[in-house]
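pinned: reference chain
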Amino acid sequence: MFEIKYTWKKIDYENYKKNHEYPAIYKWKFKIYSEEIYIGETKNLRKRIYQYNSKADKTQTTNKIIQEKKANAKNVELYELNISYLKFCSVELINPQIIQTNILKDGFIRKFIENYFILKYKYIDRKNVINKDGRSKNAKSRLIL
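pinned: its structure tokens
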């Protein structure tokens, strides 16, 4: 069983604070013709935002995609996930400070939560999610809802 209570906090990605040096799950929203969403995770939010804002760092495909979307969008917003409650199997976490500072340090947990939101937005909320699906070219499985 997995249960999560959360809010998305808007971040000024152009003038972000230097104190964002912690692990996080984040969401980009781009308004081009329709709304497009990108969900990501990082062990250091400040560095990750810097990579997206840096014109020089176009080495990663994701950076290229985000920079292209930012350049072409009518409206761009960046959000940080704030978790107030997290339950996984029999483990229940109710202290948001512990979740943010300790639990999200674990890369497996960040990836799990990132993938949860990708699936939620893509298949339940029917949003236009621009994340790559991560399957190999030879994979045969499909998620059918």
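why pinned: The first strand starts at residue 2 and ends at 11. The helical segments are 45-53, 61-72, 96-101, 107-124.
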